[in-house]
Amino acid sequence: MTRVAPVAAHHNPYEARNTVNDHRRDARAAGALLITATVAGVVVANPILGPALAAPVDIVGIAADPLRIYLGSLFHLLGSAACVGIVLALYPVLRLRNPALAVGSVAFRAIEVTFYVIGVVGLLLLVALGQEAASSGGESSAFFAHATSLLAAARTSIGFVAAPMFAGLGTLLYIGALHRSALVPRWLTVTGFLTGGGMLVAAGVV
User: Fold this and answer.
1) Which residue has the higher pLDDT, 157 or 10?
2) CA geometry: angle 183, 189, 190, nearest 5 deg
3) Nearest to 49 by CA among 144, 105, 124, 99
4) 21-40: pLDDT as tens digits
5) Confidence band (pLDDT; 50, 70, 90) for 73?
6) Distance between CA atoms of 202 and 41, rounded to whole angstroms?
7) Are 110 and 87 in contact (CB under 8 A)?
8) Does residue 183 contact residue 27 with C-beta atoms inside 8 Å?
9) Peptide bond into 56 cis (omega under 30)
10) At a CB cut-off of 8 Å and minimum separation 6, what does 147 contact?
11) 102 touches 91 (CB < 8 A)
């Protein structure tokens, strides 16, 4: 009986090169989105919202001039969208190199984005609460004061503790994988490590 030799698998170097180039492009896009998320969600949004949310929170003043709340919420949502983009760009790369890191980074980023969206809802509730207080003339009532304090405290806990903690953990996970893969420039991974560590420090301080 004649034995048929197995056919060797054909290896196309161009396909391998294209795959590496695709992964490098995805990793660089994720690095750019990381910077976008940091600038929009932290550097820009927090200074805009700061004066409006300084204690004691003046909900009637917020309702009369809600532009700061709307702009700050918009930048928070832009930062959240960038976080989603980071996960989508990095998952195919990380899944091939470290599936556990891929799943972990996606989970932490999903939790982070959920907290940010809840925080934005809380900001918009402050505007609605202020409008109700102004229209009813009850801005000095104990109910509105208590409701304002609860919303402000919840926003602080969500926006400055819970969300940054999960953001920092997720960032360190995938930046560590990118650093080992050498798919992105070193300055991007250094920026990522500093950003993730800074988020964890900020969450612990608050």
Assistant:
1) 157
2) 150
3) 124
4) 776 787 778 778 878 888 88
5) very high
6) 14
7) yes
8) yes
9) yes
10) 129
11) yes
The type of residue at 42 is: V
The encoded tokens of residue 142 equal 């104990």
- At position 91, the amino acid (one-letter code) is Y
Distance CA 127, CA 72 (A): 13
What separation in angstroms does the CA of 10 have from each of 4, 22, 73, 109, 182?
Answer: 18, 21, 53, 39, 27
- Encoded tokens for 64: 């009369």
- Tell me the pTM: 0.74
Helix (H) or strand (E) holding 105: helix 99-136
List C-alpha distances in Å: 4 to 1, 86, 99: 9, 49, 38
Give the pLDDT confidence of 95-114 residue by residue, as tens digits: 877 788 888 888 888 898 89
Rg of the Cα trace of the chain? Answer: 23
Give the 3-state secondary structure of residue 203.
Answer: helix
Cα of first residue to Cα of last residue in the chain, in angstroms, is 78
Q: How far apart are CA 198 and CA 195, in angstroms?
A: 5
